[in-house]
Amino acid sequence: MNLGHGTLEDWLKNPPVDKLKKGGDNYPFFSKYEGFKDYLNKNIHNETTKAAIIAEIIKTSDFDKITWLNDHGQEHIKTVIQRASLLVESKECDLNPREVFILLNAIQVHDVGNFYGRHNHEKKIIDAIKDGLSPAVFDRKEVKLIKDIAQVHGGSYIEKDGKKTKNTFKSITSPTSNSDSYVIRLHLLASILRFADELADDKNRADVKSLREKKMPKGSEIYHAYALCLEPAIINHEERRIELHYYINKEDLFNKFGKYDIDSDSIIERNVLEEIYDRTLKIHYERVYCSKFWKKNIDIESIWVKIEFYSDIYEEIHPEITYTLTDSEYPSKDGLTIFDLCKKELCYPDGELITTENVIKKIKEYEKSV
After folding, report:
1. Which distant-in-sequence residues (6+ apart) come within 8 Å of 325 by Cβ?
2. Rounded CA gap, 355 and 327, in Å?
């Protein structure tokens, strides 16, 4: 899809002549979208992160177990739109203007349920925007399409037998739908939104001041420490891969950060390198999952990761690490670690694994030798 080095918003504002609106109401897609976006910016987006934190405070008296969200407001929405735009810049992907309209609106609302608290926020979309998504602006079919696509981005789906599954695409009863003479590929749009949201975590979302001054709940520290290390993701269609660049300074490498473990209902300590390993593995599995729904439209085969280590004066203190996550494992095998998938790349020449403990040991040995 040729976006002319712009975003999906730019494309919808000035679509190609052969992509002009057909059927439906008399309002141009972009003007309807812009009006709704303006409503959200004025009434909801700027309050979403704060409202979610307040809901967490009300829910628990233990400050350290409160989820101190990173940014879920306007800037996060812009980032998700940018990542989605990069994803669809594939030669094989060709969204029609109604699909772009539905996708952009779904991106605008995908996190607004946080206004009522983090838990099940993806299911509270309509509660948060029922005034903005009024029938005077959006017809009922549009509201349903937007909601169905947006709520797939996280959470879980309840099966008929009551069991939970992370396969949230099951909440969409049909992969396609017809709307105003257009075919809407719901699974394709939902997979683009879900993966774009997965790639929207980077240094710009971290609450650096609260992290450094230790003023945030202990259980949320690792999320901000992780984001702080990450540069914006690169989507390389030519190489068919996602490129993730991390920069870890010595202080953060040697430090441990709190993380709330819901299973044990306790605060555990994590090193940022361990978190990077786990998160890149998660991104890998999200790509594998989403690729089932965007096949023939987007061709991304791997996640390529580079991690660099530097001192407080920005000198390299350890050789950079690079590794690639691909579909190399047998799909039914459970419990795989980053070392199962990338052992050759994550080993020193002497055979030791590149773990946090070994990286710190190598750095200390180097410092003693100079």
Report:
1. 280, 281, 283, 284, 302, 303, 304, 305, 341, 342
2. 23
Distance CA 129, CA 95 (A): 26
Q: Give the residue ranges of the chain where pLDDT is below 50.
A: 117-118, 121-122, 135-136
Q: Which two tokens stand for residue 28?
A: 């141009």
pLDDT of residue 127: 62
Separation of alpha carbons 223 and 31, rounded Å: 36
Give 208-251 pLDDT, tens digit per residue. Answer: 998 999 988 898 899 999 999 999 999 999 999 999 999 999 99
Question: Rounded to a whole number, what is the distance in angstroms from the first to the last CA of the chain?
Answer: 53
Q: Please give the Cα distance from 72 to 209 (Å, whole number).
A: 17
Q: Burial letters for 326-336: b for 16+ Cβ neighbours within 10 Å, e otherwise?
A: eeeeeeeeeee
Identity of the residue numbered 341: L
User: Which position has the token pair 């050789």?
Assistant: 319
In angstroms, the CA 293 to CA 274 distance is 30
Strand, coil or helix: 349: coil
Phi, psi of 83 (to 5 degrees): -65, -40
pLDDT attached to residue 320: 96
**Structure confidence at residue 122 (pLDDT):** 45
Say which amino acid occupies 228: L
